[in-house]
Fold:
Amino acid sequence: MKIVAQQFITQKLKQLTVKDILSYSEKYQIPVSKSEAQTIVKALKKNNENPFDPEGRKRMLIRLASITSKDTARSVNKILIKLAKEYGVEHWLK
Structure:
């Protein structure tokens, strides 16, 4: 069941919109500009890494940092961790 849930969440990440990213940014008080949100959305749509695998998440964030900035990649990681905590699955990110 865990694998199915992870696949579902990974698919949802690919469907996030700029509005979603900005909403999470505001909700969790993590600064993300509109242009950064646009870049994040494009990167997530192309991402084939498993965000629940530590190495896959690291590769995903390194790629994102290379096309945006390290700060943006850190912001995405913080949002991902906050979302995981909100849904009680933060242990999946370890």
